[in-house]
Each structure stands twice: as C-alpha cells, then as structure tokens.
Amino acid sequence: MKIPRLTDTTLRDGSHAVSHNYSPEVIRSVVSKLDEARVPVIEVSHGAGLAGSTIQQGFSTHPEFDLIKTAVESTNHAKIASLFVPGIGTSEELRKAVDIGIGAIRIAVHCTEADVTEQYFELAKALGIEAVGFLMMSHTQGANVLAEQAKMMESYGADCVYIVDSAGALVPTGVRERVSALKEALSIEVGFHAHNNLGLSIGNSVAAYEEGADQIDGTLRGLGAGAGNTPTEVLVATLKKMDIDTGINLSILMDVAEEIVAPLMSAPIIIDRDNLSSGYAGVYNSFLLHVRHAAEKFGVNPSEIMEELGKRQAIAGQEDWILDVAVELAEKKDLKV
Ligand SMILES: CC[C@H](O)CC(=O)C(=O)O
Ligand SMILES: [Mn+2]
User: Fold this and answer.
1) Containing domain of residue 193, as a range?
2) CA 331 to centroid of ligand 1, rounded, Å
3) Which of 326, 224, 235, 302 is closest to 16 using CA atoms?
4) Could you list the mean pLDDT of each consecutive 10-residue stretch along the chain, which spans 337 residues?
5) Residues 167, 137: contact at Cβ < 8 Å?
6) Pocket residues for ligand 1 (CB within 6 Å)?
7) What is the pTM of this model?
8) Are residue 296 and residue 242 in the same domain, yes or no?
9) Residue 317 in 3-state DSSP?
10) 222 and 291 share a domain?
11) Are residues 300 and 317 both part of a single domain?
12) Do residues 277 and 169 both lie within one domain?
C-alpha cells in the first residue's frame, strides 16, 4: 500500500478557531514537536493564507512573517508550507514567504476558479518551491468539473491538487468519486482536506486514501475552522491500524495534541447545532464565528443564517453576505411580530 504524505495544518486552518491568535512561542513549541514526530509538512499562516490578516478575515495578533520565520527556524526535517489565496495574497507576499524559507505553497481558490492561479503556480515553480492546488468547496461541483479544474492547475505547474471539503459536506461516496476522477485525469499527486461537520473527517480521509490520495491533511485535536479538521493523531493511529506506517511518532502527536493544542481551545470543538447546520447546508466553515457574531447582534438563529447562505451558495470572500442575511432575517422576524 502506498504511504500517504500527511500535512499538519493546525497552525493554519487551526488559526481560524483561535481567532488568529497564535504567538511565536506556540508556533515554536508545536512545530518542534511535529518535526520531532516526523510529520513531513507543517502549514503555517493566517487561516485565510498569506496577507489574510484583514478586517474581513480577522486580524492576526502577531505579524505572520514572524510566525513563519519562527516555524522555519524550528524545523530540522519538516517542510514548512503556507496557504495562498489569490486576491487576498499577492506575488509580493509569496516571494517574501519563499525568502523566509517556506518549501511549499498551497494555492487555494473556489473550485471553479482555477484559471486565476496560473501566475502564482508559475511564480512558485520559478522560485523553486513545491506548489499545491486547493480546490475549495469541492462539494459544490461534480467529479468531472473538478477534474477539469485540476487539469488546469496541472498545466500551470502544480505538483499536487487537493479536493478540499471546506464545508465538511461530503460523504464517503462523494469523496471517492472526486478523488478517483482526479487520480484518473492527472499525472501529478492528488490530496484531500476534510472538515468534520458530519463526523466524517476520518472516514472521508480513509476513503480518499483508498482511492489513491497521495497527500492528506490533518490538525492536532482537529483544531480548525468550524467543526474542525481530521485530527492528525487519530488519522495516524487509524492508518497504523490499517498497517500503513506513515513513519510518524504517534505518541509524540498525542502528547502535543493533549498538552499544547488542547489548552489553546476555549472549548473543545464539537459538532453542535451551528456546525452541523453549516455542513448540512454546505456553508464554508470559516464563516462560523462571523455567523455566530451576526446572529447574536441581530437576534436571529445561526442555523437560519447557515441555511440561507447555503441556498445562496456563498463562497470564500463573500463574508459580507453574512451580515446581509442576518439583517434580512431580523427584518422578516420583526415584520412577523
Ligand atoms: C480561506 C482558506 C480556507 O480556510 C482554506 C481551507 O482550509 C478550506 O477551504 O477548507
Ligand atoms: Mn479547511
């Protein structure tokens, strides 16, 4: 059986769950442990990628390049990756991150927008780093559309393209169809990134692996946007049970998850009403905290906001719709009274 390459994104996707509040000390301690455990790739950046620290996405407490530098300085083996969303980040930040020492960039777009990534794949390859494509909100499109989009990324120089279940809305059959379509269409690697809104992050990651996914994401304790991600330590344990030895030290992972990451969480990530309704409606997970704030401010039910955003098929970058929807629902409620 092929051994999948695991990327731990606690220090990127997890950033959404801690309101982008990572300190250099946290970065140093988590990266050192992941490195010691021999996790091959560790992603570090604002949750929305390079230059994501904005009023719309949420400000980071510490300058992102200081955090990335700390990460690079804390590794002996692992590759440090960052996320890059075209339009949020620009070539300037990509160059700067490469100067600091990242070894991979993960270029994320809504899953029908691959054509905007060309210049960034070309730049990443010209700068000599690994370039990975991230097809966000992959549940919204069928396998053939995703395969076409992935082929575009391949033609721009991508080394791997991910099916990204941003809303945690996919079930194993949907994951299988999508991953196998990419495996068939591409000659490069295929990856899978899960969210746990339907409680399927491990099951979906295993399904992706069984369809041939070469790269799989996780986060310690599942710390990530919304319902969180595939817990890295649980994934490693599950793969071990399947006789797939990733070479990662499970006991170190369990310790860092328990002793360093769990205390960062204001509350454990559970599949509560908001997370389940978000996954069920197919709403982007990083909208969760914004939806909760808007619901509280305008006195409406977060699930209703999720349902409406799902109907409108809101995508990353359309966070301002959350307020629009909350105001409209509040007005309707007032009319009824
Ligand atoms: C804004 C980037 C986003 O959080 C990427 C990601 O992890 C996802 O879509 O799930
Ligand atoms: Mn994610």
Assistant:
1) 5-264
2) 31
3) 224
4) 95 95 97 98 97 90 96 98 97 98 98 98 98 98 98 98 98 98 98 98 98 98 97 98 97 98 94 95 92 95 95 90 96 78
5) yes
6) 13, 47-49, 83, 85, 108, 136, 164, 166, 193, 225, 286, 316
7) 0.96
8) no
9) coil
10) no
11) yes
12) no
